[in-house]
Amino acid sequence: MTRRLAEVAKKVGVSEATVSRVLNGKPGVSEATRQAVLTALDVLGYERPTQLRGERARLVGLVLPELQNPIFPAFAEVIGGALAQLGLTPVLCTQTKGGVSEADYVELLLQQQVSGVVFAGGLYAQADAPHDHYRLLGDRNIPVVLVNAAIEHLGFPGVSCDDAVAVEQAWRHLASLGHERIGLVLGPGDHVPSARKLAAARTVAGELPDAIVARAIFSIEGGHAAAARLIDQGVTGIICASDPLALGAIRAARRKGLDVPSQVSVVGYDDSAFMNCTEPPLTTVRQPIEAMGRAAVELLNAQIGGTAVPAEELLFEPELVVRGSTAQAPRA
Question: In this structure, how many other beta carbons lie within 10 angstroms of the beta carbon of residue 261?
Fold first, then answer.
């Protein structure tokens, strides 16, 4: 007990006597300090005293697939800040290869009696991935919000950037520059946002041979390998499903002795941090991260407050940001 008091006191920055007053329900402690002590108990993995267990913890899980892609730290910053403004404490859960899985994190979050969970990218976007842990959250009536396109029938509200509009903007931009052979670098075949992008490309292009659609894991290396195949097919414009994929495409062109953008034009997706500092600066389609993140928190907070939220998807409009990685198509 003494060790627990000391750890919680250190975590919150108060005296052990203050922690003891909170745990024993004694007066003389502000509500803010009381909530901070209870949150610290949850974070440190200690059980609340019996008389305090009726209050759900003010913790919210924020589950991300990785932190290497700058778009995910950007979402974490917006969502975490918006949660804190509401008096909710974000618990960041980042998957690692060969380490803690998304399902493992859900189990841990349930043990901590979280008030809700926000997923920003994850297995919900892959049709062939396991989804039992999402159903577990639904069965427990835990408020959940998904950021960006998910498979159908999960039953959670979501906020997404409009993938179809993003591809239309990128495609029409390249077409206006005279590019006639435009290829796509997308994620895996069961990845819902990539499927939406492909459907949009087929609509705007009219005809899209399979040879100029390349699949890749979401990384610079994946983009490099996929774009190299497209360049071998004679593609002069490449639309990528993420900024790291686009950086890999630029590297692939250069490894083949081609100049970007005079010989190959590349468009990314996200407009994540530092894309204006690359060489050349990356033309990309910007996700409205601030608006999407705040909308996700509003949807979650409404559920936490007991308001019924329809299991619908809010679509946000992307914005094409033209920089130096696209130019007029090379003359034959």
Answer: 23
Phi-psi region of 302 (alpha: psi -120 to 50; beta: other; left: phi over 0): alpha
Q: Is the pLDDT of residue 54 over 70?
A: no
What does the DSSP 8-state code read for residue 152?
T
What's the rounded Cα separation, in Å, for the pair 207 and 111?
A: 51
208 touches 179 (CB < 8 A): no
Residues 6+ apart with CB under 8 A from 247: 220, 223, 268, 278, 282
121 near 94, Cβ under 8 Å? no
Confidence grade of residue 301 (pLDDT, cut at 50, 70, 90): very high
Q: How far apart are CA 160 and CA 71, in angstroms?
A: 14
Spell 56-94 as b/e; 16+ CB within 10 A means b.
ebbbbbbbbbeeebbbbbbbbebbbebbeeeebbbbebb
Q: Are 83 and 113 in contact (CB under 8 A)?
A: no
- The proportion of the chain whose per-residue pLDDT surpasses 70, expressed as a percent, equals 95
Which of these, 65, 66, 14, lies nearest to 40 by C-alpha position?
14
Residues, the chain, total?
Answer: 332
Per the listing, tokens 């159908």 go with 152
- pTM, two decimals, is 0.82
| pLDDT value of position 210 | 93
